[in-house]
Write a structure and sequence with these properties.
129 residues, mainly alpha, two-stranded antiparallel sheet, 3% strand, globular
């Protein structure tokens, strides 16, 4: 991680106390978690939201998930992070919830037809219902 990116990650880690981290900063169990974290940092740096705004929305998402039965063992933290990202960009008008769901479904279709170990490639057919 470059020095400016590492500094941004450490600053975010300090402002979000529930963020899984070690002495070097945030830790991730899978690449998609790091990508979700990087997207949030980028959107924050672009001015889409403040960290207090992010933390409040993430807290609301975690409480909603817990009320729905999330056992809160820590392994679902980045799922809450991703749900918060989706909600944030929809509420801020960056995209619509419909577009997010349509794109997720297209990725699911593309992943289903892609052999293990091969890159997933989206086609126009993946977006047809």
């Amino acid at each position: 991680m470059s020095a400016p990116k590492a500094e941004a990650a450490l600053a975010a880690a300090q402002e979000l106390p529930d963020l899984p981290k070690d002495v070097d900063g945030p830790v991730f169990a899978a690449p998609w978690q790091a990508q979700a974290f990087a997207m949030a940092l980028t959107l924050h740096k672009s001015g889409l939201f403040t960290w207090p705004e992010w933390a409040a929305m993430l807290g609301t998402e975690i409480k909603r998930a817990q009320a729905a039965g999330d056992p809160d063992r820590g392994d679902t933290y980045y799922r809450h992070w991703l749900a918060t990202l989706e909600r944030m960009v929809a509420e801020k008008g960056v995209t619509s919830t419909e577009t997010l769901h349509r794109t997720r479904d297209a990725w699911d279709r593309a992943a289903d037809r892609t052999p293990h170990g091969r890159p997933i490639v989206l086609t126009d057919a993946d977006f047809s219902d």
